[in-house]
Amino acid sequence: MRQRLWTLLLAVVILSGCAAIGFSKYDDLFGKAQPQARISSNKQGLGAQYLTSVKPVLDTRCVVCHGCYDAPCQLKLTSPEGIDRGVSKERVYDGTRLLAQTPSRLLYDAKDTQTWRDKGFTPVLNERVQTEQANLMGSVLYNSLLLKIRNPMQQQGVLGSEYDFSLDRTQSCANMDEFATLAQRQPHGGMPYGLPAISPSEFNTLATWLRSGAKMAHIGPASDFEKKQVSQWEAFLNQSPFKYQLSARYIYEHWYLANIYFPSENTQRPVNFFKLVRSKTPPGQDIELIATRRPYDEPNTSRVYYRLMHERSTILAKTHMPLALNGHKMRRLYEQFIAADYQVDSLPSYQPKIASNPFKAFAQIPVKSKYQFMLDEAELIIKGYIKGPVCRGQVALNVINDHFWVAFVDPDKNSSAQVSELLLTHDDSLALPASDQSNVLPISSWTKYAAHQHDYLKAKTALANKLLAQRNKLTLDLLWQGEGHNKNAALTVFRHFDSATVVKGFIGQQPKTMWVLDYALFERIHYLLVAGFDVYGNIGHQLNTRLYMDFLRLEGEQNFINLLPKQARKHVKQHWYRRSHISLSEFINRNALWGAQTDIEYVTDTPKDELMTKMEQYLAPILSKEYDYQAVPELFNVLNNLPSQAVNLLPQVSFILQQNKEGNGHSAYTLIHHNAHYNISSLLNETGQRAYHEDTATLVPGFIGDYPEAIWYLPNEAHAEQFVSRIQQILNEAQYADLKADFAIRRTHPQFWQYSDLLHKVAKEYRGIEHGVFDYNRLENR
């Protein structure tokens, strides 16, 4: 069988060689290109074969690099629509563009393949005469796979400089007329790029599919149980009273990125996911998507309906945010938004100055209702900052530290009439950059943001002092304890240089900084980084978002610092912002923002560490232990105390697989490198603010991060002992390279794809409903 596959492969290679007669003559050879009808039945024939044979190969070998906004050439292979759309030479992530780019979101910004062609996308499938020969010769996808087989990579070792794995590398995005030139100039550019070729049997599967016309099918429909749940939820969200309409709008603007599912007692039933979308059509009719840049933009329809659209694309770890809906959740929403005592006499405008400011748009909804709603799924809301479009790239993420904890102010202490009045009085000061839309001047005045923030914080501090004087104490009971059961009350954020992760619990060693979020701060971060962020916006929009986030981070940190003894606060903050610009130093040292004296009793001379310990104890009943770094085996525990010289050499995220003694399973760990900084308020000079000697690492059980940069495989205890011993002693790049040669699954490993499959299998066991396909775009070449 294997010999037959190789014989077939050789014949295909010879056949494709005939295509060298001239790639500029495809029209003469095979006629004019036009989009083809490719969607077939998912129950039989070629469509069913696509789902059972072709899609698994694409998911495991191609989607690991071609999955989302940051997919090279915008080639998304996660769905039939993405495959048929093809490639574009325009980048979604471009931090230098002066004018906002036209959005190119699948399903939203074009209704058919021809429209994508009109927008400049070129096919990776043959769109000329549909013969077997033309379907192979005229397919960019096929020829990209073939180019890799014709020019195989070296096995083991580090790839040469001809390979560029930087996120902003030059991309050719060739169409078929350009492909011959690409192949000549970049013979190493075959697919999968910078990874081993797919196996002969996998190549045969894809070649057979392409030869027969690349017919595709969507995954099967939702179950009857799920359809019933969809009907119930759409009925709930689309009732006519203004109170329901306003509540549904608020819910949608916070949940639109979530992958919604309906838990069932039948654990054998496949789980389907759904997206909450805006539609021009009511429940019972086909969804007609409202395509706007932001979820709150003018819908241009007399009535917006909130619908649940079946998510039929491959689930990616880097964008997957599961949200379970059930009867309890519906009752909770009813209590928060419908049963609550308030009236809605009219619906708010969609004008940018109103819609971009949640304190104006949703002023009628009580603060407590909104805040409890956000707290119930706090991890999901913060995941929006992490897994939404904003978080790709170092410039977007250098506004946060590499490791910090997040806690929340108790809603009962943050929802008084005085707080509501404060937000209404200062709603203009709380306006966000998105109110200026997606085309703005390159950099708005830092001074303007600072003035608005100072005015608000001054009023907020004065109100807090007044309320505390009435209560006569500032203690840990200010914190939300998750109502005794909700693990969302304590979160940890890890930044991995140009990606990030948020998980439940206070994970890892005590971090340098911590945030305590109140309602107004939590809401503003969401509308800044998620609802109001336009990934297609110009440089001004993106930089203004980054600048504004500086002040929100400072406010979250200040809420934590205000729980410290007054005499210790300035010293802690000055340590966090060493070497900062004088304007920032002046801002953070304004006496009016420091608040009242704490009533927490301190007994050590390290009050910041003591406060974090007290908070851990206070929130202990709801702390998630899923990623407890102290629960790793004793052998590995030393990796939590690596010397900074060793940590400096590590990538940001390393996955470790250790085979168990019986040989029938694996334990998984993530080794996270935390970059230390003197401060993180330098927009374009992060390297200059790095405190390399303060770098630390955390080892946790399971998988944290969606972009593995190194994969280590330890087949037995002896290998594990050697790995741990040697990693503690590495002092230079050569020693790290030797370590990788002995223990890592490099890009060039001859069995890379087998280990990739194992990695995903183990990750699915660990992550369960949270599982999605990892992204290999950041896999290091060292």
Automatic annotation (TrEMBL):
The keyword Isomerase applies. The keyword Metal-binding applies. Keywords: Heme, Iron, Isomerase, Metal-binding. GO terms for molecular function: electron transfer activity; heme binding; isomerase activity; metal ion binding. Coiled coil: none annotated. InterPro entries: Cyt_c-like_dom (IPR009056), Fatty_acid_cis-trans_isomerase (IPR010706). Residues 42-214 form the Cytochrome c domain. It comes from the Bacteria. This is 9-hexadecenoic acid cis-trans isomerase. It comes from Pseudoalteromonas aurantia.
